[in-house]
Design goal:
CATH superfamily of the largest domain: TolB, C-terminal domain
Number of domains: 3
Structural class: alpha+beta
CATH topology of the largest domain: Neuraminidase
Strand content: 25-35%
Number of strands: 35
Helix content: 25-40%
């Protein structure tokens, strides 16, 4: 266990603090090259002298000075040892000869397969007399080297896969940041829309107030003008009456009296106000502030909903993301895609498809943001694809009893051809050195096409493997088999030794299982060809749900492939349809 300081820091900072395995570090140190100037003669060191070594004996695993080398050569037991010269300024890798710890003078020349241990001759006699399989170390070294090479290739593949996943996650981080900016802009836009609407209503109310008050003010100004005119007339008549009364003339008094009794004098009075005609009287702003606040709180600008993409589970929904037309310019027939696989080459997804009617294998990819394709003609109609590693696949040619190995660069390059004794239609990779292939049963093959084992289980006198159509390998190393014998189609899960893990038989009439694969959750996806659907089974082989149907746009599905990013590729007649899985949280 390694404790890291402040693990909340970015992972690229504290990941460097994780210590390597002391066992692996010890092995690396033991394989380190010998460097002149750092080692003295081992034999002189035993005598307490410090003498610079000039030679290295890989048989005894010791360094020697000039004097000790002469004695080493004179000794008949060691004169033919492999001795390297260290006098030049070079680095020489130590060739470690395993010596027995219990018998230090004896080399460990034997390997016990039963105990899986290296042994010297004395240990074989003393401790392994009952063991049945003791062989020389030299005889098993090639097998060990091949195994280590396979492990090394797998580690390199795992490292490349990890690098690809890391690059995709980094791209996803960038996409999340860009999506954050987009979401913020959308929220601001929605808020601005609501604010603009409120301001529009504000302008309407203010304009309405202007109209009402202008109308009221206009009427008041008219009344005020009439009032002023009436006041002027009253002042004038009042002055006339005052003069008549002060003139002491009977005639003036009589005339003014007669005028005051006339109709003309009756019109000289204060006019009634026109305000009674102003509509609505006093203008007022009627509103309910509490209700307004409640409505603003309930204002629906939108919601932030997290849509999880590229995740497969029982609640996710498949959405058509893209469609790839596999028609090539020089095709003689309408394409018919039988199987599909996806490779990541130079951080670019490359889609490989078998075109049955045009007798070729095709690849589709993008280069410099332009769509590109490659076409590899083959001897006969190709069947299924088995992905061997990140840039290599095996393809069945049943009519010619061959399996071809194709490299994806992303252009397709034929590497080799394997002849088989049977017409194998379906194929899957079990290990770096073994394949599972289907004809009337399922055979385990080596990379030379030799049958290592045949899987043909029978239950209650019923042959279970009948018409294997597609194969796939689970993470546990088991084999998924879709059997389509046009009568009782079924899905099987077999161990590499032929034991039946489960068997699923659909209830509907004429089931037609085709493409099959395992998901990252351990579920199983199977194409039901005649029903135009993709169904999901549990890890134990029970029906879960329909993932895709004809409503999702599939009309004639054959093969499928689920990549690490959880994009589902389905061959559908003359195209490949790509579906993404999303889920609202």
């Amino acid at each position: 266990m390694t404790k890291v300081a402040d693990s909340n820091r970015p992972v690229e900072e504290w990941a460097q603090e994780v210590k390597p395995s002391f066992l692996i570090q010890g092995l690396l140190d033991s394989f380190a090259p010998y460097n002149q100037g750092t080692n003295n003669c081992n034999l002189c060191d035993d005598d307490g002298d410090a003498t610079l070594a000039t030679s290295w004996c890989s048989d005894f695993d010791v360094s020697l000075c000039g004097g000790c080398l002469k004695a080493h050569v004179r000794n008949p037991a060691s004169r033919h040892h492999d001795v390297s010269d260290l006098s030049r300024d070079v680095k020489v890798k130590k060739r470690r000869k395993p010596m027995c710890k219990e018998h230090p003078d004896q080399r460990m020349q034997f390997y016990c397969k039963d105990c899986k241990k290296l042994q010297c001759q004395s240990c074989c006699i003393l401790y392994h007399r009952k063991c049945e399989s003791i062989v020389s170390l030299e005889s098993v070294l090639p097998e060990m080297q091949n195994t280590l090479q396979s492990v090394k290739q797998k580690l390199e593949t795992d490292l490349a896969t990890s690098n690809t996943r890391l690059a995709k996650k980094e791209a996803k981080c960038t996409e999340i940041n860009e999506n954050k900016s987009s979401l913020q802009s959308q929220v601001r836009s929605a808020a601005h829309t609501a604010i603009d609407l409120i301001k529009k209503k504000e302008r309407q109310l203010l304009e309405q107030i202007d109209d009402v008050t202008e109308k009221q003010r206009g009427q008041l100004k008219g009344d005020m003008k009439r009032e002023e005119m009436a006041r002027q007339m009253i002042r004038q008549h009042s002055m006339l009456l005052a003069r008549a009364l002060g003139s002491e003339s009977d005639v003036d008094i009589c005339e003014m009296y007669l005028w005051s009794e006339s109709e003309e004098a009756a019109t000289v009075c204060v006019p009634e106000s026109g305000m009674k005609d102003v509509s609505g009287g006093k203008a007022c702003f009627i509103h309910d502030r509490h209700l307004m606040c409640e409505e603003l709180n309930d204002l629906h600008l939108g919601v932030i909903d997290i849509i999880v993409e590229d995740v497969f589970d029982s609640t996710s929904t498949a959405v058509l993301y893209d469609t790839v037309d596999i028609q090539a310019k020089d095709d003689q027939e309408k394409p018919e895609a039988y199987d599909v696989a996806v490779f990541v080459v130079d951080n670019t997804d490359t889609i490989a498809v078998t075109d049955y009617d045009n007798k070729c294998v095709k690849s589709f990819y993008k280069r410099n943001k332009k769509s590109c394709q490659s076409k590899l003609g083959v001897q006969s109609a190709p069947g299924r694809i088995a992905k061997l590693n990140n840039n290599k696949m095996a393809v069945t040619l049943p009519d010619t009893k061959k399996i071809i190995i194709v490299e994806v660069k992303p252009e397709l390059v034929l590497q080799s051809s394997i002849s088989t004794r049977k017409e194998y239609h379906c194929l899957t990779s079990l290990t770096p050195t073994t394949l599972a292939a289907g004809s009337e049963c399922v055979d385990i093959l080596d990379m030379a096409g030799n049958v290592l084992r045949t899987l043909d289980p029978v239950t209650d006198r019923e042959k279970l493997v009948s018409g294997p159509w597609y194969l796939s390998t689970t993470r546990q190393g088991n084999i998924l088999v879709s059997c389509d014998d046009f009568a009782a189609g079924s899905v099987l899960c077999l161990t590499p030794h032929g034991d039946v893990v489960f068997r699923y038989q659909p209830l509907q009439q004429n089931p037609s299982p085709h493409g099959i694969t395992e998901t990252n959750t351990g579920h199983i996806l199977v194409i039901d060809h005649f029903a135009n659907r993709v169904i999901q089974l549990s890890a134990s082989g029970t029906f879960v749900r329909e993932v895709l149907t004809s409503r999702d746009g599939i009309t004639s599905p054959y093969g499928l492939y689920l990549c690490e990013s959880q994009h589902l590729y389905v061959t559908d007649d003359d195209c490949v349809k790509i579906y993404r899985f999303t889920r609202n949280t």
